[in-house]
From TrEMBL, chains A, B:
<dbReference type="InterPro" id="IPR023753">
    <property type="entry name" value="FAD/NAD-binding_dom"/>
</dbReference>
<keyword id="KW-0285">Flavoprotein</keyword>
<dbReference type="InterPro" id="IPR016156">
    <property type="entry name" value="FAD/NAD-linked_Rdtase_dimer_sf"/>
</dbReference>
<feature type="domain" description="Pyridine nucleotide-disulphide oxidoreductase dimerisation">
    <location>
        <begin position="344"/>
        <end position="446"/>
    </location>
</feature>
<keyword id="KW-0274">FAD</keyword>
<dbReference type="Pfam" id="PF02852">
    <property type="entry name" value="Pyr_redox_dim"/>
</dbReference>
<protein>
    <submittedName>
        <fullName>FAD-dependent oxidoreductase</fullName>
    </submittedName>
</protein>
<keyword id="KW-0560">Oxidoreductase</keyword>
<dbReference type="InterPro" id="IPR036188">
    <property type="entry name" value="FAD/NAD-bd_sf"/>
</dbReference>
<comment type="similarity">
    <text>Belongs to the class-III pyridine nucleotide-disulfide oxidoreductase family.</text>
</comment>
<dbReference type="InterPro" id="IPR004099">
    <property type="entry name" value="Pyr_nucl-diS_OxRdtase_dimer"/>
</dbReference>
<dbReference type="InterPro" id="IPR050260">
    <property type="entry name" value="FAD-bd_OxRdtase"/>
</dbReference>
<dbReference type="Pfam" id="PF07992">
    <property type="entry name" value="Pyr_redox_2"/>
</dbReference>
<feature type="domain" description="FAD/NAD(P)-binding">
    <location>
        <begin position="12"/>
        <end position="309"/>
    </location>
</feature>
<keyword id="KW-0676">Redox-active center</keyword>
Length: 466, 466
């Protein structure tokens, strides 16, 4: 039986969260379905839609001039495309059985129910905020939202002193350290781990430690913050650990994030061991025909370890949104998973990783060999050939590539993409030695650094088996 | 039965050609076998061993200060590692049945026979030198060897005028155009094809044409050189085509190369349709147990089209040498083939390709869809985000990736490696859309340009099938 679209009222898609995953889903669904076929309503509790959280460090650091540059699409632009995005409206409850969500206007407190035929949960992640004395003092800042970024910039403008402490030395931590160096601050990074960048193995993290010290950043590793100290004006004046105090006119928290899944938990939706929503390959919430979830609030399959992980990253959120929107719009798409690729930089130091660290491999029950090599970004004789260190993990016996970490200068970070594709294809390191990678003296030595590592890893696998 | 190595005289490996493939093979065989086990004798007719031909344009252009920087290993260094490399010694005949080669000392003309147990043929390629009036005039230069490079530099130093013509607009042609621009010359590039860079489709080659014109280079496409005109002193003064003359104080030939396989042909060894030696996967010459061949004198399997090709490129030569040396030394390694990756640049314009062009696909009997997109090397809001154009070919119906071409600025060229690995793994463009590539604003938009192209190609494949 074929029904004319005009004979029925449109289905309604409700989207919770007006950022990358949610609005990508809404936009893609709109491309596939007209407003007569599908009404799209999205709720966002904040002031901004579709912004690049990953860009905040560069805005704070001055590389990006204005906040608006980080906004990919405003609510008005979404409206013009037939998406009813309601800002400053928080969803407070999902009634799964009743197929409706309860909302509360953040400013007026007014509550309402909105029914849905299809629901997309894209509630993102919330920064970890340790319960420390002084944590709420003026001058202590997170950097999750554009509001956070503006508050930090205002705080920097209002502060006479030039000391800053960054708590945490992951991606956000090192990027914020760069931003504050660029703003002329004396920066201290206090980090719980043995080395910065715990997403790398410690031997590679050590290179980051050394390079950051070389940039004039004080690196305090293996230290837990125990308190935030305030001055007579109530404003932050220092950060305390068990053994020392570090002066701070401003403190930036970059400790990491957790999936924002309180709503989903209350609604009885399935959560994984990392607290993220669990979905199937089409990004549909497991066991729920008409609910999808994506972005920083979900767990994703790690294709190397075969286990779920939580990774908050804009590029995944956009892919999830694209897949969800396609499926909601009546098409078909899947998100098979990740291999754990991430790149970052601190000034001219580039940092990249993909696949498993040593401890990930052990945790996954995999035995491995590991090699490290040093090479250059260009032919050694070509001007500005920059050194880089590549570490590679391969499975014992099979030689399957398990992971790559790269620390170096210009041209280091994006080389990790070679390994990311090889991991996806489940290549062995020996297969990788034959990869036909782009070679010309301005772009690579005759053996690309990744191939040099693959050759050494191949030898290590053979020796281990022999 | 186990024999003590001291009870027998060593086997002898003879290598013809002292450059990348030959000396890599020799070095790798030496790592695996002591001089007591394997004697290694190599013959090189030129003045230099193990040099980077790919580096010559950068030496001529002044980016690389001295010739010696292009020499990876001198004959003395090879000797110190137990490799008897005899320079200025040409092999004039291979006696396959007698397992020996005849040599001639280039300077004295003295001839001799050297027997071998194992033979490696690494005779390289010779530049195409059209049979034109005036082609041998002073001031007309090839750029294949270090001697060629020195002669060109001497010619530039001796020339008062500042006009140069480059014949050919492939890799060597465009790189030599850059070199001569860097030396302050008015450069004209005369090119037989409709656009420069015939290794790209014409629509992508057009971008190169435009960018090179933007650099002040006169681009003469679709024009065959008919003569080299000389002055009263016998030296070159212009290059003539059917319709015009272009003043030239110096002329550089960059028309391409052919496999140097005269010796092999005379010895009855198997050659392919491009004139290169045919080998098996272990780089052993087909039908010959004890003869290997690699580098610019062999044909290689194109893994995308399933047909043999000839590609002269140092990175392949090094891989071949590594594989040959391993096998000659008693180990096991293979060279499965290439996907046809190449990168180059003209000043700040980066050019990259991998896989099949449209005409390659047609020739291979493949039907395809093609898409082109424009994107940037970094997040659009990040400083110095450079634009690039990505063209992608995918097979009809299956959606298998067939090829990628990229023309852009900083960060464009090496992105082709993503596609090179995906081609090797025979991924579909839809599988590519889920690739977990490195993302951070300084390194990529949230959708990497290659992913943007893969998304559009996926849509094109679906639409074509629908």
């Amino acid at each position: 039986m074929t029904m004319s679209p005009t004979n029925r009222s449109p289905e309604r898609l409700v989207v919770i969260g007006g950022d990358a995953a949610g609005m990508s889903a809404a936009s893609q669904a709109r491309r596939l379905r007209t407003p007569d076929e599908l009404e799209i309503v999205a709720f966002e509790r904040g002031h901004f839609s579709s912004f690049s959280a990953c860009g905040i460090p560069y805005w704070v650091g001055g590389d990006v001039a204005t906040r608006d540059e980080l906004i990919a699409r405003t609510p008005e632009e979404h409206a013009a495309r037939g998406i009813d995005l309601r800002m400053r409206t928080e969803v407070t409850e999902i009634d799964v059985a009743g197929r409706r969500v309860r909302t509360r206007a953040v400013d007026s407190g007014a509550e309402a129910w909105t029914s849905y035929d299809k629901l997309v949960i894209a509630t993102g992640a919330r920064p970890i905020r340790p319960d420390l004395p002084g944590i709420d003092a003026p001058g202590v800042h997170g950097v999750q939202t554009l509001d956070d970024g503006q508050a930090l910039l205002d705080s920097l403008a209002a502060t006479r002193g030039r000391s800053a402490v960054v708590v945490g030395a992951g991606y956000i931590g090192v990027e914020m350290a760069e931003a504050l160096v660029n703003r002329g601050y004396e920066v201290t990074v206090v980090n719980r781990g043995k080395e910065p960048m715990a997403t790398l193995d410690p031997d590679m993290g050590r290179l980051v430690h050394e390079a950051m010290e070389g940039l004039g950043i004080r690196m305090v590793d293996d230290a837990a913050v125990t308190k935030i100290l305030t001055g007579d004006d109530g404003r932050v004046r220092a950060v305390g650990t068990e053994s020392a105090e570090y002066p701070a006119d401003v403190v930036v928290l970059g400790i990491g994030v957790r999936p924002e899944t309180g709503l989903a938990r209350a609604a009885g939706l399935p959560l994984g061991e990392h607290g993220g929503l669990l979905t199937d390959l089409s990004m549909r919430v497991r066991g729920h025909e008409n609910i999808w979830a994506g972005g920083d609030c979900v767990e994703v399959m790690d294709l190397v370890s075969g286990r779920e992980r939580h990774i908050a990253l804009g590029t995944h959120a956009n892919k999830h949104g694209q897949v969800i929107g396609t499926n909601v719009g009546g098409g078909y798409a899947t998100f098979p998973g990740v291999v754990g690729t991430a790149v970052s930089k601190v000034c001219d130091l580039e940092i990249a990783r993909t696949g498993l660290r040593e401890k990930d491999a052990r945790r996954a029950g995999l035995q491995y060999v590991t090699v490290s090599i040093e090479s250059t970004s260009r032919a050694g004789y070509y001007p500005n050939a920059a050194s880089m260190k590549v570490k590679m993990l391969a499975e014992r016996r099979t030689g399957r590539l398990l992971g790559v970490q790269i620390v170096g200068r210009e041209g280091a970070a994006k080389r990790v993409d070679i390994a990311a594709v090889a991991l996806t294809a489940r290549m062995t390191v020996e297969e990788m030695t034959a990869l036909d990678l782009g070679y010309a003296p301005p772009f690579s030595p005759v053996w690309d650094p990744v191939l040099v590592a693959a050759r050494k890893a191949t030898a290590a696998v053979r020796e281990d088996a022999g």
